[in-house]
Amino acid sequence: MMRARIVVTRRWPADVEARLATMADVAFNRDDRPFDADQVTAALATAYILLPTVTDRIGAAVLGTRPRTRLIANFGVGVNHIDLAAAKALGIAVSNTPGVLTDCTADLAMTLMLMAARRAGEGERHVRSGAWVGWRPTHMVGSRVTGKTLGIIGMGRIGQAVARRAHAGFGMTVLYHSRQRLDGAIEAALGATKVPLANLLARSDFVSLHCPSTPETRHIIDAARLAAMRPTAILINTARGDVVDEAALASALGEGRIAAAGLDVYEREPAIEAALMGLENVVLLPHLGSATAETRTAMGDCVLDNVAAFLAGRPLPNPVG
Ligand code: DGY
Hints:
By secondary structure, this protein is an alpha/beta fold. It has helices at about 15-20, 35-45, 60-65, 85-90, 100-115, 120-130, 155-170, 185-190, 195-205, 225, 245-255, 275, 295-310; strands at about 5-10, 25, 50, 70-75, 95, 150-155, 175, 190-195, 205-210, 235, 260-265, 280-285. Strand 10 (about 235), helix 11 (about 245-255) and strand 11 (about 260-265) form a beta-alpha-beta unit. The longest helix is centred in the last third of the chain and has 19 residues, at about 295-310.
């Protein structure tokens, strides 16, 4: 019997690749170069199942080539790089990897919060440059995290995991803005209060973004919303780059209209707004939210579960769209 052909667009953890190889006829991307549009189109033309990641643009143009692919099983939870409506219209199923990267992404949001508030990136650069001349009371003074107010935009799994850490671990007051209100018992456990966005921006010491990238959330933090934040506030983004107007953020940081930012994601990855690169008051990480060995293996295994279900004609565990 002919085995289904699967194309994987990036390198995965070796043990997961080995498990995948037993399931089908798999074309791996051994040198791990990102696919360009032609390669994505070619993969869609030949593969029964495509296993892409956030770096692959699977928009209407490539889907318009009427691909042979029947399942797009994404390695990652965010699916803003896939045109879900176009896939649906072509009868292509889509799945993702929710849940398995919640804690690790929440940990990274806390890392950015602590680094930005305590000037950890700046301090590290200072030490490595050889410029440090020793302790002094006024040196590199940052701001306290414990007991402050955290505003969370997008209160899904990851937003709630951040709230849990902030409230239980750092005694923070949590405000949130979300389409839906959480159950009262969950709100109480997280110490979280739902408020209008304008109220959240005006009251929060930290604003952390955890909403998906959609047409509605694009630039949800723009110049006007940055102006509505406190001058001492710190913005954290571990969601998707385009939920923040990066140029407006660079101006606000450069002019000291907000105190600092911690970013893991960018509007045009891997490019970063040039003005941000020279600023000391922004921590810049290379999209590390899910980057732990445990989580990357769990993400791969989650993709494999969806592939196995699809090949067996069972419902997908993690359908999207
Ligand atoms: C996700 O899962 O969406 C991460 O941003 C990258 O994998």
